[in-house]
Amino acid sequence: MKGNGLECPLEYLWGNAVTAPRNELDWRDMSKLNWAILGTGAIAKTFAKGLKVTDTGQLKAVGSRSQSTADSFCSEYGGMGFSSYESAIDRPEVDAVYIALPHHMHAEYTIKCAQHGKHILCEKPFALNALEAERAMAAVRGADVFFMEAWMYRSHPQTAKIQELVSGGAIGKPLAAHASFGYRARRDWDHFKADGRVGGGGLLDVGAYPVSFLRMIAGEEPNRCEYSCEFSDTGADSVGFGLLQFPSGFRATFGCAIHLTMANEATIFGEEGRIHVPEPWFCRGPILLIKDGKTEEVPFDSVPDLWGHQAKVMQDHLEVRESPTMSWDDTMGNMRTLDALRRSAGLTFAQEPTE
C-alpha cells in the first residue's frame, strides 16, 4: 500500500541537523541484535520477554528515569540499567533500540537514536502528528538506519493470512469493514494515556490499530475521515467512533475507547461473504471465513511470541532499512489519517508541533 511532544531542541527535530553517517554498527555480525530498551513499563517488559522467548536478540541496556527502576527491570530481564535514556542509547555495544516511552516522546527519541546510528523499533503511535513524524523520518533517512513503527500485529502470520484471503478473492470484492479496540480504565486514571495534553485518549492509544487495519484492507488512503468522540476533563477522547471512506468506494467504521470495554475485533464484508477476526490485535486466532451459510476456520502459521517475532522481522530486513509488514509510507499514511480524524472532531494536543 502506498501512502500518499515533549519540547526538544530544534536541532533534534529538523532533518538538516542530522549528520550521522551510515550505521557504524553495520560491520558487526547481526545474527543476534544487541538491544537497548527505553522505558520500563508494561510494554517494555512484554518486549523483553519476547526477546528471551524467540532468541532473536539480547538485551544489553535499559534506560529509565531512575537507576533503581532500571536495575529492578534488569534483575528480571537482563541487561545493564541506566538512569537516563540517553546513556542507554549511547552504549557502543547496542545495535538497536526499542522505544517504549509515552506517545509524546517517541519522535524525540527516534531522532536521538538515529543520530547515534542505532536501528529503531518505535512503539505506536510514532508521533503526535504527521508534521512531527515527518521530521523524525528525516532524521532516520539522514542516518541511514532501520526504522519500524511497532505494530506487532502487522508482522504476524495471522495478519498475512487475512491479507491473502482478501486479495485472493475469498469473499469476493471487499465492500466494507468494521473494527474496534477499547478498554475501560477508571475515569480518574492518572496516566499519560488519559492525558489529552500529551496525546492520550482513545484514538492514538488504541484507535490507531483499527485505523491501521482498515487502511491495510482498503489498500489505499482514505479521502474522507470523520471522528466523533466524548472529551474528558483533560481533553482526551475517552470514547470515539469514526468513519473512513476510500476512493475505490470501500467504506469502514471503527470504535475506540479508554473508558469503555469494546469487542476488540474486526470484520471484513465482501460481495460473497465475510471474514471475522475475533482477536486481530493480539493474533490469538481464529480467522473465520463465513460464506454460503457456512463458517470455516482458516489456519495460519504460529510464532513463539508476538513481540519477539516483530524483532525477528526487523532483524531480517535490516539491510533494506524498513519492513514490508510496516513500511515508512504506511506509517506516514496512518499519521496523516489520524490527523484528519482529529481535525474533524476538533481534537488537539498541547504538546504537538504546529509549525
Features:
alpha/beta; 8-stranded mixed sheet; 9 helices
Describe the structure.
With 355 residues, this protein is α/β, with parallel strands linked by helices. The chain has nine helices and 14 strands. Helix 4 runs parallel beside helix 5. The N terminus is likely disordered.
Distance between the termini: 28 Å
Strand order of the largest sheet: 8-9-10-7-11-12-13-14
Rg to the nearest angstrom? 20 Å
Largest sheet: 8 strands, mixed
By secondary-structure content and strand pairing, the structural class works out as alpha/beta
Order of helices and strands: EHEHEHEHEHEHEHEEEEEEEHH
Report the mean per-residue pLDDT as an integer: 92
What portion of the residues fall into strands of 2 or more residues? Answer: 15-25%
What is the tally of beta strands? 14
Low-pLDDT segments = 1-27
- Please estimate the helix content: 25-40%
What is the 3D form? globular
> Given the structure, what is the number of helices?
9
SSE blueprint:
Elements: E1 33-38, H1 42-54, E2 57-63, H2 67-77, E3 80-82, H3 85-89, E4 96-99, H4 106-115, E5 119-122, H5 130-143, E6 147-149, H6 157-167, E7 174-182, H7 202-218, E8 224-231, E9 237-245, E10 251-257, E11 266-270, E12 273-277, E13 287-291, E14 294-298, H8 306-316, H9 328-345
Parallel strand pairs: 1-2, 1-4, 2-3, 4-5, 5-6, 7-10
Antiparallel strand pairs: 7-11, 8-9, 9-10, 11-12, 12-13, 13-14
